[in-house]
Amino acid sequence: MLLTLLALVIAAGVLVALGERTISAKPTCAGQTSTAQVAVSSEIEPVVQRVAAFFNSEHRQVDGRCAAVAVHAAQAATVAKALEQPQPRLEPPADAWIPDSSLWVDLARGSPDAARLIQPTGLVLAETPLVIAMPRPAAARTPVFGTSVGWQLLFPQEVGRPSQDLGLNVQYPDPTQSAAGLAGLIELKRIFGYGRPARSALATFALNAQVVPPRTAAGSLPWLETFARPPTGSEAAPLTLTSEQAVVAFDRSHPDEPLAVRYPAQGTFQLSYRYVLTTTNRVALAVAKAFEGALRSAYANAYVRYEGFRTGTGAGGTWPSSYGLTKAMPRLLPAPGPDQAGKELHAWHVLGLGSRFLAINDVSATMATGGPTLEQVLGRASAAGMKRFPDSTQMGLWVFASHLSGPLPYKQLVPIGPLPGQFGVITRRQAIQRLAATGRTAPHAPPAALYGTLLAAYKQMVATYQPQYVNDIIVLTAGVENDPSDISAATLLRKLRAMVNPGRPVEILMVVFGVPKDLADLEQIAKVTNGKVWPVTSAAQIPTIFYRAFGRRICQPHCPNGSPRTGQPQSGR
Q1: Distance (Å, rounded) from C-alpha 171 to C-alpha 3?
Q2: Is residue 566 part of a domain?
Q3: How many domains does the chain fold into?
């Protein structure tokens, strides 16, 4: 390791000397200076700053003016979002851009105006494959982190990870901000497949993943210093998805605690640092094009390898291979199609939207049947499922039978609000868990006024609709309507059709224990609201239903009915 570091220092000194000799041979440029602004991802910034200093010292002229470039680090996701707008709002503005993945370029060029503005040059300054990494001591005590590691190691147990408790703490890079996270999400989605099971699997992953932000506002990758030093006493083995370059840089600065890495067995993606032009200003564009020549130089390639990247042709550096790194190019997966990143980010976004639920539990006489009653079985399952809802969730709880609150068939036990919020001396989450787990069927064995309760709940949720949330009604019921004083299914359907507002979508989602005789009516009622009915025969089915319900967000409002849709992955490019 010491010899490697010494060689790198000597190489850097030779490059600097070469640059100084070249610069000293150039004449001084007099007159006005035209400066092109170059936005770059933070990890490549040292390379581009070196090349920019070399370029500026050459005193080139463009249109009779001195040509210069100013380089600043900027998070690629932020630049992509700004460039996608009709009038890009970037401070400072970007005349050229080097993001850490062409996925951001695809996203930014989503509109015709942006596609005309953002012009790839064909130059790939650097590349770096994705790797799965662990601290070396944690890897040594984790047998599954063997010679061959697949993408499935990032999955939660519910969607395909080995059934035994692996003791892993998967820290997944935020796909909305990290190219590694976004590329990984595309591959995970390919593995999950298509149709209803795939949507459920993606929802399971999204709701169970520990998503970590980038290390800096201008960066894209997790902070490996924190990752490599888990809290004292922690037995979980940290695992993350990062880049080969990030590992090289970490190992170089932490020679006594190098990371253990594996290239995914199915193949991996590369982060490609492409040089793209992002201005219509004629002079700035000319300067940015001139800078491209410097970025293509052997001088630039030498610094790319010095900083732990592979060159645009895939040439690696001289980093050590004892902990899993390899100078040879690993097996690469086909590049995603130009629309793939946008599709998967949309799915991730809708899965991450805050949820606003009104939970309604059936406490009618029908629920009092059985050994453990249906209400006890579903109540316990409901209480156990509460831990699956993230803290961003708002929820309230009703129960229904008949005449529970004067003439009303329902009674509000907990008003809608944030789950972590206080409800008396406990949190709202704890209150709903306790009430669901210990609830009692209503006295005097009342009938069930299900239809009237659904109408009242729908009215309230539409009236109090909050656009930043997914607003749903979740009903746990035996599915029986037997209150002679209640409205009919036909009346409920007519009233719901009149109230449905595409600008305020509220779904009715029902988990029905058994197969009641009115199941077809219930399915029609749910369908009017783009909702769904899930008949179950066992409480063990409810966790699966939970993830299916979340997964439906991806295809709404056009989720197919019946059997799962089949499809083929989009071809790569």
Answers
A1: 33
A2: no
A3: 2
Parallel, antiparallel, or unpaired for β 506-513 and 532-536?
Answer: parallel
391 and 453 in a single domain? The answer is yes
Beta-carbon contacts of residue 241 (< 8 Å; ≥ 6 apart): 130, 131, 132, 133, 154, 172, 173, 180, 181, 184
Omega of the bond leading into 320 within 30 degrees of 0 (cis)? no
State pLDDT tens for residues 431-445: 988 887 775 655 566
pLDDT over 70 at 427, yes or no = yes
pLDDT digits (tens, 9 = 90+) for 142-164: 888 887 899 989 887 666 554 34
Question: Is there a domain that residue 249 lies in?
Answer: no
Q: Are residues 378 and 495 in the same domain?
A: yes
Query: Tokens 């990062």 belong to which residue?
Result: 242
DSSP state, 268? B
Range of the domain at 76: 2-125+274-311
Task: For 460-482, write each residue's pLDDT tens digit.
Answer: 999 999 988 889 999 989 899 99
Question: Cα 265 from chain centroid?
Answer: 22
Q: What is the CATH number of the domain that holds 58?
A: 3.40.190.10
Please tell me the distance from the alpha carbon of residue 77 to that of residue 184, in angstroms, as a whole number: 15
Instruction: List the structure tokens of 326.
Output: 């390899």
Pair (531, 435) in one structural domain? yes
Q: Which two tokens stand for residue 159?
A: 């969607």
Whether cis (ω within 30° of 0) applies to the bond prior to 407 is no
Whether residue 453 sits in one domain with residue 385: yes
Helix (H) or strand (E) holding 470: strand 469-477
Phi and psi angles of residue 420, each rounded to the nearest 5 degrees, phi first: -75, -10
In a domain, 250, yes or no: no
Q: State the Cα angle at 300 between 294 and 306, rounded to 5°.
A: 170
Whether residue 104 is predicted with pLDDT greater than 70 in this model: the reply is: yes
pLDDT at position 220 is: 65
